[in-house]
Amino acid sequence: MTERRTMIVTGASRGIGAAVALGAARRGWAVGVNYRTQPDEAEAVVRSIRNDGGEAVALAADLGDEAAIVAMFEAADRQLPPLGCLVNNAAGVAPRRLRLTDLDAAAINALLAVNVTGAMVAAREAVRRMATAGGGAGGSIVNVSSLAARHGAPNLYIHYAASKAAVDTFTHGLALEVAADGIRVNAVRPGLIDTEIHERAGMASRVEKVAPRLPMKRAGRPDEVADAILWLASEEASYVTGAILDVGGGA
């Protein structure tokens, strides 16, 4: 990049989001580190970036709240350079292994509010700032989907899988809608990644159980997913839009 621009990473206080934020700063981006309930962890990511000479701020917002998302982008407008990329990484997860018969509408809607509606609202705010038709300089959006969208996650978290399938369709549609406005829209679909998400979902031993069954015989690392996201966000992927890149060790 010849001129520093901002990348907002949602859900960036830990896991894949933190790896994206740290990697983006090393590549010259100013970074908006979004968090919902982990201010200390988000500030630790910000400190790490600043200690290495980068530019970052922590941005509090619940991605299930439209007003909070709008306020987050407005805070980034005030504190950081112009927006050049949004990474839609924040996601709601099931609190434990669930079948559809265990779910009520409130649980389904709470997850969809973050994974689908929140991602779409965040993308809307990014497009409003980056679209060349509105005076922006273009940019990119990278949505974080999941290989669960492909296999459906039966007997596990079927509503999460369905939400990520919606993200895939949204990625394709938005890519076509904003291509002429200088904005590229792509998605990464991680498979089994060694993060705390499994513990949050009540399956702390899932990585150890599932990894040996994968073609590569191991879980992925957050930085491996981050590298794919950052490539899609970069000018190296300047002719790539509407793509969904699987990062799942062959699964």
From TrEMBL:
Kindly state which keywords UniProt assigns to this record, in alphabetical order.
Answer: Oxidoreductase
Q: What is its EC number?
A: 1.1.1.47
Quote the InterPro entries the UniProt record gives: NAD(P)-bd_dom_sf (IPR036291), Sc_DH/Rdtase_CS (IPR020904), SDR_fam (IPR002347)
Q: Which residues form a coiled coil?
A: none
Provide the GO MF annotations for this entry.
Answer: glucose 1-dehydrogenase [NAD(P)+] activity
Record keywords: Oxidoreductase included? yes
Carries keyword NADP? Answer: no
Q: Which family does it belong to?
A: Belongs to the short-chain dehydrogenases/reductases (SDR) family.
Record-linked PANTHER family: OXIDOREDUCTASE, SHORT-CHAIN DEHYDROGENASE/REDUCTASE FAMILY (AFU_ORTHOLOGUE AFUA_5G02870), SHORT-CHAIN DEHYDROGENASE_REDUCTASE FAMILY PROTEIN
Protein name, please?
Glucose 1-dehydrogenase
Q: Which organism is the protein's source?
A: Oceanibacterium hippocampi
Lineage of this protein's species?
Answer: Bacteria, Pseudomonadati, Pseudomonadota, Alphaproteobacteria, Sneathiellales
